[in-house]
Amino acid sequence: MAEATCLWCEKPFPPRRGGSPQRFCSAKHRSLFWSALRRWGERTVAAGILTIADIRNSDPTACTLPGAAISPPPLSQGGVQPGEVLDAGEIVEDKPSGAQPGPDPVHFWGPRLSLWLSRRIWAPGWGPRPDQDGCLVPDYLL
Fold first, then answer.
1. How far apart are alpha carbons 142 and 140 in whole angstroms?
2. C-alpha R_g of the chain
3. Residue 109 lies in a domain
């Protein structure tokens, strides 16, 4: 029987026979995964990256964990790296003159772009994704 790799500890284990595919080598590692995911979700809501409305209005279809890790595509030249801090000289204002000041785009979009670049997560309430036409993220941040 082929061995599987635990999503938590990344060690190989002999999966059970029958039923849905086993993703973790033990109940403890499955519990640790779901606990960490809940904490991560709570932090993203507390940080304003996700809202309860984003969660409530998201795709209701079941989500199955992938069998193997998928690397995100490479960043385009000039893209903002996750966690990168831009100098004031690197930020170009794209507001028309006389526009009312709004939230700082780097602080507003930065955490959302980091989530998109690292995990390919984009809430429906944020508008079109960065890889779609009509994306609301300023061009200089993409």
1. 6
2. 19
3. yes
Under 8 Å CB-to-CB from 3, ≥6 apart: which residues? 12, 13, 14, 15
pTM of the model: 0.43
Note the pLDDT tens digit of each residue in 45-59: 888 888 888 888 877
Contact in structure between 117 and 123 (CB atoms under 8 Å): no
Q: For 97-117, b where at least 16 C-beta lie within 10 A, e where not — what string?
A: eeeeeeeebbeebbbbbbbbb
What burial class does residue 82 get, using C-beta atoms within 10 Å of its C-beta: 0-12 exposed, 13-18 middle, 19+ buried?
middle
User: Partners of 4 in the beta sheet?
Assistant: 13
Range of the domain at 116: 41-57+78-84+104-142
> Is residue 121 situated within a structural domain?
yes
- Please state the domain count of the chain: 1
For the stretch 1-13, pLDDT in tens is 678 999 999 999 9
Residues 110 and 104: their CA atoms lie apart, in Å, by: 10
List b or e across 48-65, with b for residues whose CB sees 16 or more CB atoms inside 10 angstroms.
ebbeeebeeeeeeeeeee
